[in-house]
Amino acid sequence: MRILLLGTAAGGGFPQWNCRSANSLRAWRGDPAAPARTQTSIAVTLDGRDWTLINASPDLRSQILANAALWPREGLRHSPIRDVLLTGGEIDFVTGLLTLREGHEFTLRGSAETLATIDANPIFGALPAARVPRAPFMLDETFTLSSGVTVTAFDVPGKVPLYLEGQGSLAGKPGTTVGLELTGGGRRVLFIPGCAEIDEKVRARIDGCDLLLFDGTLWRDDELVQLGVSPKTGQRMGHVSMSGADGAMAKLAGLDIGRRIFIHINTTNPVLAADTPERAEAEARGWHIPVDGEEIHP
C-alpha cells in the first residue's frame, strides 16, 4: 500500500490565512523550521495505477500539482483519481470536490449522512450523479476501492459540521464523523482525522494496526482560549488534544501501534515548528509530525 500525505494541516492550513499567532508568524516569515502546510487529505493505492482520494480539501488543486502520481497520464483528459472517500461533511473535507468538476468520472463515497449533506447543497450539482455516482457505505461493513484497498468505516465521537450546528444535537447521527480502516498488502492502516474522545471502542479499533494517522488539531484543549483567538475548546470543536491526561498521546500510549503520525494539525499548534519543546515531547513519545508530500509505505 502507498499513502501520499497530500496535506497535513487542519482547516485553514498553516499559516491560516488570517492568523498572526506566534506560531503562524514563523510560517509567514518563511522560517525553515515551520514550513507551510495545506489542509489534510491523503491519497492511497494498492496497484500504483488507480488512486483513492480520502477527503477533498480546499487545497486540492495545489496538492495534485505537487504530487506527480496524481497527474493526468493519457489522452486529452485523464486523472488516476478513481474514488473520493469522505470521512465527514466538514468544509475542509468536502470543498475540494468542486475542483473535480471538469468532466472527470469518479465514485463519491461516504456515509449516508455525509452524502445527504452534500446532495442538499445545490452547488455540488456541478458533480452530477450520472457522472459522479454516490456510493454510500454502511458502518462496520467492508468494501473494496478502485485502487484495490479494502476499507471498513466506523463511527467515532465527533460533531456535526460547523454550518449544521443549531439544527439538532452537536454530535449528529451515526456516520457524521467516521474513521477508516484501510487494509492491503498485509497491512492495516487507521485514518482518523477528527475525533472528540478516545473511548474504548476507538482504542480497540486502533490496537494492533501497522500505521495510525490521527487527529492532531490542538496541543492542549484550551489552546485557542489561552491565545485569545477563540472561546472554543478542542472538545467543543470536536477534537481531542495531543497532550493532557485525556489527550491522544496518553490515551493511546499502551497500544500496539507500528507507526504513529499526527495529521490535521491546527495553525496554532506548536508542534508544527521543529524546534519547540512540544515537538520534542511528541517525538519522544513516538509520534511523527509530517510535512506535506510525504509518501508512506506502511
Strand percentage: 15-25%
> How many E-type strands?
14
Count of individual domains: 1
Distance between the termini: 7 Å
Tally of helical runs = 9
The largest sheet has its strands arranged as 6-5-4-3-2-1-14
If classified by CATH, what would the architecture be?
4-Layer Sandwich
Helix content: 10-25%
Q: What form results from the Cα inertia axes?
A: globular
Pathway: Cofactor biosynthesis; pyrroloquinoline quinone biosynthesis
Protein name: Coenzyme PQQ synthesis protein B
Pfam families: Lactamase_B_2 (PF12706)
InterPro entries: Metallo-B-lactamas, PQQ_synth_PqqB, RibonucZ/Hydroxyglut_hydro
What does this structure look like?
- Belongs to the PqqB family.
- One of its GO terms (biological process) is pyrroloquinoline quinone biosynthetic process.
- Pathway: Cofactor biosynthesis; pyrroloquinoline quinone biosynthesis.
- It is built from nine helices and 14 strands.
- It has 298 residues and is an alpha/beta fold.
- The chain has one domain: Metallo-beta-lactamase, Chain A, CATH 3.60.15.
- β5 (107-111), α4 (112-119) and β6 (134-137) form a beta-alpha-beta unit.
- The chain is globular, with a radius of gyration of 18 Å.
- The relative contact order is 0.16.
- The mean pLDDT is 93.
